[in-house]
Structure formats: structure tokens, C-alpha cells
Design brief:
With about 130 residues, the protein is mainly α. About 70% of the residues lie in helices and about 0% in strands.
Length: about 130
């Protein structure tokens, strides 16, 4: 395991990857910690900011192996989804619609962080090189 492939990548990849790692950790904290508390709301705003940073930064990351439509890949559809779902989930929380907020946030955590995160370990991707070498 070596961080060299990640550290040698463009700056936008650094932002994207480190925000994703932080969001994964904070997401786990949010899932297990008490809900409706000041710490939950504070961490939630940080988490939402990280998610939006991840989604926005993805539009400047174009892997050669995953391109399907020009420089875009299916993962960019997930980024678009996150850009709509995060504000919707925050609005639901503001309106005390706990069910909608919970479903949206768990969906984002599962889809955008866990499932998409697993795909970063596919051979040929930077995180595969970080975890397993070239």
C-alpha cells in the first residue's frame, strides 16, 4: 500500500479522494450517533459540504478507462444525483420530514460513498494502485 499514486495525481483528485474518505468516516458517525442533536446537525452540514465537494470535483476527473459519452462516464450521473439529493435531504430535515431525510441520506451514503467507493478499487484506477500497487 502506497499513497504515491494518489499524491502524484492532479490536485482535483486529491480534493475528491480526501473529501470522499472524510465523508465516509463522518457518514458512519452520523449513522451510529444520536439523531436530532446539535452534534448531528453540525456534522451533517460538514458531511453535506463534503458530498457536494465530491460531486462537483468529479466533473473535472475523466478516467480514460471509464469514458462512455465523450469524457463522461456513468459515475457522473451519480454526481448529478447527489447535487439534487443533498439539498432535498437538507430541506427535508429543515421541515422535520425525518423519513425523507433518512432515506435520502442513507441512499447517498450507500450509493455515492460505499458502492461508488468500491468501484474505485477496480484495476487501472488510482485507488487500486494505492491499495494493491501497480
Amino acid at each position: 500500500m502506497s499513497l504515491a499514486p494518489l499524491l502524484n495525481a492532479p490536485l482535483v483528485v486529491h480534493l475528491h479522494a480526501f473529501a470522499a474518505m472524510a465523508a465516509l468516516v463522518l457518514g458512519i458517525v452520523q449513522l451510529v450517533a444520536p439523531k436530532g442533536t446539535l452534534p448531528h446537525r453540525t456534522i451533517g452540514w460538514i458531511w453535506a459540504t463534503l458530498l457536494l465537494s465530491i460531486a462537483i470535483s468529479s466533473f473535472w476527473i475523466h478516467g480514460k478507462s471509464s469514458r462512455m459519452i465523450g469524457v463522461w462516464s456513468p459515475i457522473h450521473l451519480l454526481s448529478i444525483s447527489v447535487l439534487f439529493t443533498v439539498p432535498m435531504a437538507l430541506l427535508a430535515a429543515h421541515r422535520h420530514n425525518v423519513r425523507t431525510h433518512k432515506i435520502a441520506m442513507i441512499s447517498i451514503f450507500t450509493g455515492a460513498l460505499v458502492i461508488a467507493g468500491i468501484f474505485t478499487f477496480v484495476p487501472g484506477r488510482i485507488m487500486h494502485a494505492v491499495a494493491f500497487g501497480n
